[in-house]
Amino acid sequence: MPTGWVEFFHPKEEKWIPLDCVRGMVSCRNSLEQPHSSKRQHIFIIGIENDKIINVTRRYCSQYHNVTAKLRRPEEQVFQETLHVLCPFERLSLKEEEELRGFADSEPMPNSVAGFKMHNKYILASDLKKYQVFWPPDAVVGEFRGEAIHLCDHVQKVKSKEAWFTQFARIIKVTLFV
Fold this sequence. Notes:
Layout: E1 6-10, E2 15-20, E3 25-26, E4 46-49, E5 52-55, H1 57-60, H2 64-72, H3 76-86, H4 94-105, H5 113-116, E6 122-124, E7 132-134, E8 142-144, E9 147-151, E10 155-157, H6 161-168
Antiparallel strand pairs: 1-2, 2-3, 4-5, 6-9, 7-10, 8-9
């Protein structure tokens, strides 16, 4: 069954509250989400307010990093470009951006190796590519089966000595600090 709802802004609570007019439910954020076993998932959810278009997917997907972000990865760039063309100068308010980030950040850490694969927030050391490192190297957020868990934001790309020479005509000079 297709899902549709409206949101209204509650000025005293200073937040958006969902209203499912079909089922007569108010403040029903969790009940609007499709079951994760379902083949039909919410991948993109947008809010339209006057002339402003906002991506509110994180508000309605409790498994945003674990499920939704992986499903939307192929279409993410096209979606962002389309939003930018339709509404190039509108941005979320700082408070609303923090609220949406809070929804996505409150979801639990994956509980399987497959859950860490292509995760938007967490990465295992064994999943690093050949020319990637963690920086800072000691910023570990947890442990999974004896392996350190890092944030994806801490992954940095590095180049080999040969790449520096062939791409930039630079030679790496090794110095020892005593």
